[in-house]
Fold this protein.
Amino acid sequence: MQKYNLDLHYHSPYAAACSKNISISLLSKEAKLKGLNLITTADSLHPIWKKHIKENIIEKDECLIFKEDKNNLEKTNFLLGVEVESAKRVHHLLYFRNLQHLDTFKKEINKYSQDMEKYGGGRPRLSLTPQELLDICVDYQVPLGPAHVFTPYFGVFAHYSSLKEAYGKNWKKIKFLELGLSADTQTANIIPDLKEVKFFSFSDSHSPYSYRIGREYVCADLKKPNYDSFLDLLNNKKGNKILYNVGYNPLEGKYNKSACKTCKQLYSLEQATVNNWRCIKCKGVVKKGVGDRAKEIAILQGNKKLLEVTKRPNYKYLIPLAQIIQIAIKQKNIQHKSVLEIYNQFIEQHTEIDIMLNVCEEKLNKINENIARYIIAFRNDLVVFRPGGAGHYGVPYITFSKKEKEEKQKEIDKETEIDLVQKTLF
């Protein structure tokens, strides 16, 4: 067994709103800088991108790697994967053993898609219900898991209150799900019918660069970084197992709290319900948050006390290094050259993952004392969030003492509170 860092969800240039610079060679390079060992080809059903995959991926020692890595000791390993959209705009992640497996499956589902061959079809839309899609995946032995499960608009739990309701008779064939940036393990681990389902944290990145990919990932023990070990991981076989999940604090996610889409005012579930999901301040629409939706589902499934349903691997919170630098130097644009210059200094000798979680303070100080101070504060849990919601990301504030953290938290609480006794307007 060996420890691997997995990020198995992002996109190619052929999905909507994605970088045109994405390539297998660049993904391989940037994954090494990040500290990722097993990533996905992404968007594998798109014909132009699939041709690019075929030209750049080779099989060696039962693993898929970038062809130019074949003689390197350090390799980036790939899984063939794709995200697809079913009816009700529900998104799903699918993975394939090899291109032959992919082609066989594509012949079956091609008739259900009108955009798979088009420029934006990297994430194809299928005229299939989630149940119909899963039934086909079962027939073709394609592992399927719902993506960013709680996210409004595209998450399965935005439209259904159980996996059985969404996927029908084969629902127990679902072995994994993706939590999404607005949820963590604790958020989802109160839902009874998820007890046997693996929780994955992946980045869903639309960029190939190391300051984007791996913003969420899974650390796992695998026999090999390949499809067979991935299946064994899903099925608890041969010692393959998740060690821990790493990702955003869900308070930073765009949909964590129930909030007004217009003015960002936060609401408790009780407040939003009493006011018919309209904002007291600006009369805008209040969007239900991921945390509130998870609690609703748990209660509907009988977990009224909201107790965790099973013991799971730890979830470690992460703020990307570039974002730490951005905060420290007070730069609005994370891609500004001043941010990336410092970022590149840090990853010259260490991966970003090691920088954020492992490299000692003394070595960090030798690179940049100011940034090191912020990294250590992050490691010491001195971060406070103005929570996100209704499509607006949360805002992290890094403090340097417990007292400063408490004072900042009180300031945020006062800023975001709303008068419960104010007369209902709707």
